[in-house]
Specification:
Helix content of chain A is about 35%, strand content about 25%. Chain A contains 13 helices and 17 strands. The longest helix of chain A has 17 residues.
Chain lengths: ~425, ~425
């Protein structure tokens, strides 16, 4: 007799609908690859009567998705509702408690409750899989857990959000201001109508927290993380960066040094010749630096129904093959809290843009403020005046502590010759 | 009681020694990640008395490695001998027949006997793993078999050999001729004393055959494949390519169109702005184009003991976790022969360099030969004369069939105004 596993899909939005149809149409090839039949037992969503451009039989409709967690015929629940709380949370907790395998694309849920969920999954010897929660179709989680399992990771970084990468790329390529680029992204479907979490770095932060836990064998740390978005980047900054041989990218970075882990999400200037500077549009790329393998890069589509389905099916095949694994590489008991540190003592070179009144003595005052705070200047460019009264000064500094820059900025802000809020963007070696 | 699996390592060369020591030192973390103790039962190599810079106890020495295949305590054999025939072949066949899991880094063996070996492994329900055989530490096999398992792959291409990539990169960066670059590569340990298979494309061909079978669910095809190496690339070609906005890379490409698969290994001009043009030195990069995920790129260290050990341990963890998989994604019975086609009808634009005597009427004759064979010219540059008597003509053609270029070349070769063998390099869109 052929082995069969019964699947319930919960959530039939953009992703859910695509996944449901893909699974329906690819049952045979998935059976061939896994030796187990992926049988769609139920689907559940907010409304059955909603107009859909694919057939959906009442026979497989489940009105209350939570019932799936108690149905003894159900083996696997695929959660595509989204959100860290509410139904998604209830469904996933109940499912794992009732020994159902869980596959989810819900990064907010995993970043917030992943530790608890993995504990329950391990206890009940079921899978808790979330490849689709980080970087869409890029198989980064599987690569950390399996392909690179031998390695001692010391840094994981990359472009983890397609929307913000599209906006920054388009500001660069099409010489647009931030607002216009964002509005284009919305028109093209690359940004949601409420793009807040993509733009303010929260989406990257969720993904980074998950990757950090996987990379450093730690629990998820939601507290000690620097998160800055892209909305303060002006066209002039992109332009200045280009002139200096840099591109501006929103990066997520987790690194471990002397057993201290730093998590940070912020825009950064990166050398235009570097590989990651070429990753444009909605693409995602993750760089893993580890021993003994060295530097590994994975690049691909970071969002959208197709790429997300690719990851969901990969998780599904893993479950169908019977490959039970610890959700976060190590068993719950062996994971560490990790010594997380904030960014204050981390040293950076930075790009600093100061729009100032064009009068004597200012440069001397600025350099004095910097010297007082132990920030030394590597390069200084006074750009042509914005208008007759003001000038724009761009400074590339040598490395100094993050906290020193905070002091520099807070002092400069108070100066009456400063006409706009000073812009500071870290420079990252990648 | 803790689960334990007994391992025999065969081959203690550069790779084997590194792997043995890595495994010894990382037993605990591997146990933590897999819940199974990786116990080194025996190691075997040509000579016990050979001087080694690490301790090796006589207690675990196995003189005749083939005995491991019949020892009922042995669970896993790691073959690091190399070569498609001889002891490596005997060992791996015998091991699988005797229900031992096999992990190997031997691309020649897998490319030649992989189909037969996978059949035996499947029948005996043991693993036959060979992540380390293709692109060192880049987890490309695992990604095709797991991370990208949902996808219908239509093209897989990339830089699959670090030695030749180093030589080409160094010809470009350091303005060296091929011979000098090769000699540097040897000095730096990036090329073996006999680098033939790295340079003539055979090494890439072995890897490509394995990837093709994995990507297109076919058996391995050793017969229908175009293989050209890099030894005919001159410094002047690299220089010309640069002037035209290209880089020259040795590519392995397998693509399926209308159910016909073409496998080819050859140097190619690729746009200097493309991602893969930036992959320099000994790095490897693989591009997978597939549905629904789109384009996925994996880049990393392609060779050396560290990266290879990363892949070997990843295979080992898979076995320790009990993750039995079909070695070539699909079961043996479901794999197809595949309709392989040679390169003749494949269309390319090409770069053509003709060193000719500098006299009247030659250009007219060359263009006539090309027109007769339905090759049209996109761009033509007559470079400054090499010496007073000769000129170098560089032509970028429009797309034409491979077979047309063969005819053009065979006609031109006979012309008495041609002073060197004409150089032709395909242009690849990547």
């Amino acid at each position: 007799m052929k082995k069969k596993m019964n699947i319930v899909i919960v959530g039939l939005g953009n992703i859910g609908s695509y996944f449901y149809n893909y699974l329906r149409k690819n049952k045979k090839i998935i059976f061939n690859k896994t030796n187990t039949i992926p049988n769609i037992l139920f689907v559940s969503s907010r409304s059955f009567v909603k107009k859909r451009n694919f057939p959906l039989s009442k026979k497989i409709w489940l009105k209350d998705c939570l019932l799936a967690t108690k149905n003894k015929n159900v083996d696997i629940i695929i959660e595509l509702i989204g959100g860290a709380e509410g139904t998604a949370k209830k469904l996933v907790f109940e499912a794992l408690k009732n020994k159902k395998h869980i596959i989810t694309a819900n990064k907010a849920l995993v970043a917030k409750h992943g530790d608890q969920l993995s504990k329950i999954a391990e206890k009940n010897k079921v899978n808790f899989e979330f490849e689709a929660a980080v970087c869409g179709g890029v198989p980064i989680i599987r690569s950390i857990k399996e392909g690179l399992v031998a390695n001692n990771i010391n840094k994981i970084s990359g472009i983890l959000n397609g929307t913000s990468n599209y906006i920054l790329s388009s500001m660069d390529n099409d010489k647009l201001e931030y607002k216009d680029s964002l509005s284009n992204a919305k028109k093209l479907g690359y940004a949601e109508s409420n793009p807040a979490s993509d733009i303010n770095g929260e989406d990257v932060a969720s993904k980074l927290k998950i990757l950090t836990a996987l990379a450093f064998n730690s629990f998820i740390n939601n507290k000690i993380i620097t998160v800055e978005g892209i909305k303060n980047i002006d066209q002039i900054d992109i332009n200045n960066a280009n002139q200096l041989g840099y591109k501006i990218k929103l990066l997520g970075v987790a690194e471990s040094r002397k057993n201290k882990i730093i998590q940070r999400v912020h825009p950064a200037l990166i050398k235009e010749k570097s590989y990651i500077a070429k990753v444009g549009g909605v693409l995602n790329a993750v760089i893993v630096e580890s021993n003994p393998v060295g530097k590994t890069v994975l690049q691909g589509e970071g969002a959208g129904p197709g790429p997300t389905t690719s990851s969901l099916i990969s998780d599904l095949c893993s479950v169908l093959r019977g490959n039970v694994k610890f959700p976060f590489v190590l068993p719950y008991k062996k994971r560490k809290f990790g010594y997380f540190e904030n960014i204050d003592n981390k040293k950076f070179s930075v790009y600093l843009r100061l729009d100032v009144k064009d009068r004597h003595g200012i440069l001397s005052d600025i350099t004095k403020v910097m010297a007082t705070n132990k920030v030394s200047i590597k390069r200084l460019i006074q750009n042509p005046t914005i208008n007759k009264k003001n000038a724009s000064i761009v400074i590339i500094t040598h490395e100094a502590k993050s906290s020193s820059f905070v002091k520099v900025l807070s002092t400069l802000k108070k100066k009456n010759y400063i006409v706009n809020i000073p812009k500071i963007i870290r420079i990252e070696k990648v």
